[in-house]
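Issue 218. Parser rejects a valid record. Input:
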Amino acid sequence: MSLASFYLSEASRLCGNPEYSNAISQTEALRNRLFANWPYDNIVLSEITNRGPRSVRISPATKGALTALVEHPWAVPLETGTVVRSSKRG
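Output the parser choked on:
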């Protein structure tokens, strides 16, 4: 278990808030997937719901996890109109 995982689990345990704990674990699962084996330099919401970790494939969970990654500079939002894999993103 990595040191970061240990501290996350301890924070979750001490807070005793299962919703908070679930959000943290979903965000961490997405971060791990993106940095471990995501084949692209960028990500779009639809790809997470289709190929991301099972825990974040539901749209509200996906948006929450992605928002948390942006708020804690693990991800940077794309400019409106950016073309990603031949599709213009809004």
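Fixed in the parser; the record now loads. The mean pLDDT is 82.
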